[in-house]
Please model this.
Amino acid sequence: MNGPRHECAVQHATGEALYVHDEALRSGPLLHAWPVQSGHAHGRIRAIDATAAHAMPGVACVLTGAHVTGQGVIGPVRHDEPLFPDEVSHHGQPVCWVLADSEEHARRAAAVVRVECEPLPAILSIEAGIAAGSFLTDEQTIATGDVDAAFARGDRELRGELQVGGQEHFYLETQCAWAHRDATGGYVVHSSTQHPTETQSTVAHVLGLPAHRVVCESLRMGGAFGGKESQANAFAAIAALGCQVTGRPVVVRLDRRRDLTITGKRHPFLARFRVAFGADGTLHALDVQLWSDGGHSLDLSAAILGRALFHVDNCYRIEHLRVRGRVVRTHLPSNTAMRGFGGPQAMVVIEEVIDRVARTLGVPPETVRERNFYRPGDRTHYGQEVRSADCIERIWRTLAESSSFERRRREAHAWNASHPHRKRGLAMTPVKFGISFTTTFLNQAGALVLVYRDGSVQVNHGGTEMGQGLHTKVAAIVARELGVAAAAVRTMPTRTDKVPNTSATAASSGTDLNGEAARRACAAIRERLGIVAAASLRCAAQEVVFADGVVRGGGRELPFGAVAEAAYVQRIPLFATGHYATPGIHWDPHAGRGEPFRYYAYGAAVAEVEVDGFTGMHRLLAVDILHDVGDSLAEIVDRGQIEGGFVQGAGWLTSEHVVYGDDGALRSRGASTYKLPGVGECPERFVVDLLPRASEPGAVFGSKAVGEPPFMLAIAVREALRSAVAAFRGSGIVELGCPAVPEAVFRAIRAGTV
Amino acid sequence: MTAPPGPQKTLATFHVNGESHEVAFVPHKTLLEVLREEMNLTGTKHGCELGECGACTVQVDGTPVLSCLVLAVDVVGKQVRTVEGLAKGPELTELQHAFADMGAAQCGYCTPGILMTADALLAQNTKPTRDEIKECLAGNLCRCTGYIKIFEAVELAAARCRGEKAEPRKESIHGS
Ligand code: FES
Ligand code: FES
Model:
């Protein structure tokens, strides 16, 4: 096996791995919180009558805005999310919270709280929002070349529109927070959060306390995928507020229904585009307008839209490109970060454009893709050089070969010729994904490494563990830098009293940032230990080598622990902090120019599908992936991210359908009405290869980020479906809904036969 | 106004993981609630409490059941096994080892339910095919792994249980 396995692999397999609700239940008596939810998408609250609820068994308190001693309005970027709204702005929005001695008691009491609400007109779609002039942001634009002049040249031209659907995170562990008082007058909040620092500051803001009175701990999450980057904060604040008001520990745990109806999802997008292209498929000019559905509050929508603007080029050089975008405000839950953060939506759009161009010209879409690839030296529409652009072509060629793409495409053609009612389709699509937070100042991280006298090591860092294997990778980095065994390193729970002022674990950058910070802390310790060891080993400090749990030099060696003990006796500190700020990145949003990304991660995928013409039902038959993870720090972790990300992406594009009713209430409110990928969707052939010789000089130990990029490999599945639909219909553009659920595929087949 | 009296707790003996526990609980509580809230057995997870996700799977007399859909009173007198009852002390089962070796758990939240389901399969079928594994796990959702490593882990465990000296397939760790 190459590299370490998940640091909690055994705890996961024995049930010993605790999550926030587990910890809370084991801690002793608690109050449990349950929300009273709005029955209207938009409305003014006239009165809340909790008299009956107060009389129910076990009820301790009904939390309302009157209890807030600090600020009752929160939000990660703009404070526009009232915890106790006077005006409700989405169906299911919490209006107040009941605290009782059991979850059941809280739930029963919440059911009898009477909320008098005067309904107001609601905006429930992007189009309605545009028509009403309802926006959360101003327009953002990035442009290169002279788009208007290029369109005036009289090349062939296409216009189109595409709606891209949202996606529910469906982390298996729903939102949860548990707050209690500590022995020194502070509050400890255990939260299933990707962003403990922001959770801490949100709690402090609501409680009216300085940050130092609040500690937030994120032990581990049962999945997050972006859904706990900002949206865990409100629940932590409610738990802490309940604790402040009652003096008792409080747990907030949403059940699945509450989680689905309260929290935001991946943003749906509407895209309108116009493209000019040559007879050979070269894209000369592209003008794209994007609108995202932000829901009722800003949350992270501006940055998410920004990442969409950055990724509308995917792997393609387009000389004249203009992309504009704006976030629409609707009366729906506030949409938020989800794996890819706007990048996937934009990449679906450019692949849509490519496919339409290809089908207009009557050539395979793969040919148009290849024709437009970035080459070394090219720059993106925001002016950043596409470093390692040769990777695109290298991955593409290698994958075409290893997957036998051409042969299998011919075979599918032959198969289709003899199957009138079922068709197979293949597609190959590439991914380029920029790594770094596009908000430059977020690209920093801290770590605290403690070496004990016996040579054992604790590492604390600002990143959170949600299953992505961050702690495994950081521990591996620490072990490597100190030259000790993996078992000598223990990763401590992420807490804001160990490492303060951290960024969210997001943007795939958890390892790049926290891993490098931890490495720097270790390097500082190693340097001090090197001097100590050199004296004992009777060699120069530069000759000292740390490896395999020993310290070598001058032909002799000492156990690492002996050097630690010697350093202690000599009064040398055995702990250090490390801080890392990603160098060289900058972004000017007004000019639409800069180098927002440290580097790009690349990959490509081939998907093969089969479609039933009578129903539009489809099956994923085979997947071949070649992905670039740089020098992998933990192959098993990276491969897991690639496989899991791909399947999650395929779910988004082909089966997961977020549906709201005309009243703004979520209709897809459970796994029975929202089709997640299950074991049955897993294809027989699923080949994942990592790109060899891909060391990334700009990141820790040559590794590359892997959390988000593979998600977009799944666009190959959507394009393969389109190719199968085309096989039913013959030539011409194939308009395919997104998500391409069976109904959408069926409609696409039908559209071609009337 | 005084609160109406809540339902009374009853006392019953449960056999869980080979031990007997006398537990006071409200009789309309599900097995999942009693395990987590009254017995501190938090290894069994809730993902939906509607029978849709499989995270709460435990074994009752050797058969996997969704503990969110079973009333605790219904398992009195039966043998309940949860994820905490798989390992014998520090000694993990082959299935647990295989999950750890293969990276079949990422966030780990679906893992207890999947282990309990797959363990029941392996008790009956020492050489399950991929399709049999899929059929058996059809009620378990995992949002992290994409399932591939889970299938491979079950296959690896089955091989090791048969006494074969199986290691993770090279291509499942390193590609083809
Ligand atoms: S919690 Fe029982 S099936 Fe989901
Ligand atoms: S490992 Fe996270 S849900 Fe399965």
